[in-house]
Amino acid sequence: MKSKKANMKKLFALLITTAFIAGAYAQDDAKPKEEVKEGMVVTYHPNDVIKDIQNYENGKKSGLHVVIDKSGNLKRYENFKDDQLHGPLKSFQSGGRSRKIKNYKEGELHGPYKIYYGNNKLQEEGGYIDGKRNGVVVWYFDNGKPSVSYTYKMGVMEGAQKTYFKSGELQSESQAKKGQTTGEYKEYHLNGNIKFEGNYKDGKKHGSWKEYDEEGKYIRTIKYKDGEKL
Fold first, then answer.
1. Signed CA dihedral, 17, 19, 20, 26: sign only
2. Residue 95: its pLDDT value, please?
3. Can you tell me the distance from the alpha carbon of 52 to that of 45, in angstroms, rounded to the nearest whole number?
4. In 10 A of CB 6, how many CB atoms?
5. CB–CB of 116/122 below 8 Å?
């Protein structure tokens, strides 16, 4: 008799456990599945002005993406492919003036780019290949005159390097090799006369350096070895 009651208790416990597990699975099945975005998705500002337009393909950003401020002004447009930036990107300042113009390839900066100051003057321009600076990159003062011009080869400074006074006159010129200043260096006074001339070796001053005043008169010679004065 006791054995029969014990068996009944075990059976009852088993039925309860089975029902609990089945209920748990039923609840999991009842959970809403995450929606896979497809096609155009539009969001709005609280004032009902369109905020964002994004296209999706199989849940991934694809094609044109547009961002708009609450006043209805275009802030940015860009392009995606497989959830990565791919193609032109352009952002805007107030009044519709350009802020940044860039190009991407599979998520990496690739191609020419330009960046502008708030006064619509060019701030920086250059180019990238596979996310690395390549070619001549120029930075500008806010008056539109060039500040610095560096030459890059796949992310490393290589070739002519120049700096300028804010008035636009050349301030210095040198050469870079594998990211380091190497060879002849010249620095100028604002009137164009040479101020310093010498040589660099592996990024350090090396050899005889001559200094001149604004009128071009020789002042002195300083000797260096691996960046240290002798």
1. positive
2. 85
3. 9
4. 10
5. yes
Distance CA(80)–CA(57), nearest Å, equals 10
Which residue in 108, 118, 209 sits closest to 154, CA to CA? 108
What pLDDT is attached to residue 36? Answer: 83
Q: Which residue has the tokens 């011009």?
A: 149
Question: Mean pLDDT score of the chain, rounded to an integer?
Answer: 89
pLDDT tens per residue, range 188-225: 999 999 999 999 999 999 999 999 999 999 999 999 99
Nearest 5°: the CA angle 40, 42, 46 is 175
Residue 108 contacts residue 130 (beta carbons within 8 Å) = yes
Phi-psi region of 114 (alpha: psi -120 to 50; beta: other; left: phi over 0): beta
